[in-house]
Design goal:
It contains five helices and five strands. It is an alpha+beta fold. Strand 4 and strand 5 form a beta hairpin.
Length: 222
């Protein structure tokens, strides 16, 4: 959506009987406009011709209103609605717009728009609608920001949890390695103890000599 800035709080009002008239091609480029349209817009006719009609769109107008208008006239049907236009210097005017397709047989060749002086009550109703829509869009935008922040927090938590899991996995690997090393040390100690027991149960060299001497003596006596 085009955002034309800056804007002011100065309103322009059409005189009784005055009418803004403009014609565009099928793509919405201005091909013709009357002197009242030129005067109120603040542009010259040369600056307007060939330009997109949204050159005079006011940023207060909801995008949905123009989407509905284009969908309607592109479908071959007329559209009517209250529109806030922006002048070149940022001033504005409210006008009831009547837009309709120009056709050649079944082919749309352009669009015609005629705007007159609005009823003040209609303007107040339109202002209330614009405020409501703007407030709703603000709430939606705020909700989207909060949702985005919440998603960011969830993602950060997931990253932290993943970090903890990786740290725990590393600790498990370290503990497994330590347990394996302790097991090897235990096996070494256990083997040493078995050797010690074998050595402790074996007869000493002196005992072996005494046994041999007794056997020799027994042999001599015989």
């Amino acid at each position: 959506m085009r955002h034309n800035l800056p804007v002011t709080a100065t309103a322009h009002t059409l005189a009784d009987g005055e009418m803004l008239v403009s014609v565009t091609d099928p793509q919405g480029r201005i091909t013709c406009c009357n002197p009242v349209f030129v005067r109120i817009s603040g542009y010259s006719a040369a600056e307007l011709l060939g330009q997109p009609h949204n050159l005079v769109r006011h940023p207060d107008m909801p995008e949905e209103a123009f989407r509905d208008m284009w969908d309607t006239i592109q479908g071959g049907r007329p559209w009517t609605g209250l529109v806030k236009n922006r002048c070149r210097n940022g001033d504005f005017d409210w006008v009831p717009a009547n837009a309709a397709p120009l056709t050649d047989g079944d082919r749309i060749t352009g669009h015609l728009s005629m705007r007159t002086r609005p009823d003040p009550t209609e303007v107040q109703q339109a202002l209330a609608t614009v405020r409501s829509v703007s407030a709703l869009l603000g709430e939606i935008s705020s909700g989207a920001r909060h949702q985005e922040q919440g998603i960011g927090q969830v993602n950060r938590s997931i990253v932290q949890i993943d970090g903890f899991i990786q740290q725990n996995a590393a600790m498990v690997e370290q503990l497994a390695a330590s347990a394996q090393a302790l097991g090897a040390q235990f096996d070494g100690v256990h083997n040493s103890m078995r050797l010690f027991r074998l050595q402790a149960d074996a007869p000493s060299l002196g005992a072996l000599d005494a046994v041999a001497l007794r056997r020799l003596g027994a042999t001599a006596e015989a």
